[in-house]
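Researcher: Re-running this chain for the archive, since the previous output was lost when a drive failed. Same request as before.
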Amino acid sequence: MKKVLIVEDERDLAELLAYNLEKEGYQALVTGTGVEGLETARRELPDLILLDLMLPGMMGTEVCSALRHSDKTRGIPVLMLTARGDEIDRVVGFEMGADDYIVKPFSMRELMLRIRAILRRSSQEPDTTERQITMGTIVIDCASHRVTVAGSEVELTSTEYKLLLYLAEHSGRVMKRELLLQDVWGYNFVGDTRTVDTHVTRLRNKLGDAGEMIKTVRGFGYKLEE
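Model: Regenerated structure tokens:
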């Protein structure tokens, strides 16, 4: 049984989330503060964390950053919940290592679909082939999931790595945002395409000058080409 940790200070919402998760066959763990959520994550090692952005004492972004800086919890997917839908909140959340982002009030059905997609994606067998993909100064080592630019390693989140790998595997081809959501995020429903835009922006910034190889095709999506 997959284990989902809920870090949410609104008790009614936390209980509603736990009820729906258990109805879907997941084991739900509930905490109400960032500190408690971080401690529980380290102890229980859940399969997914639903993390509220605005938490008492320790913000959700701080919790996410702490999770990503620990070998023990680095690989746990994080889905951020927030009452604020500003672009800056999404960017900060993704910068701290969140895998996805949903704004309150949200459809419980959409949330469960997103959870299912994230868990399905995280449980897939990793690519352990010895192949390397080189695009200009970018080298993607598929066996170690390492990315280097001009010989220097670039730290990417799991989602950023999968996005770069997918674009590299389809180099020169325009990939629609909806297709990226389907194939990288695993969404088989209509999701928020701004998620793709925000991740592409973060990925470009991390790649430095090499990020210019990710081209925006206005009205369609993105492509990677030298």
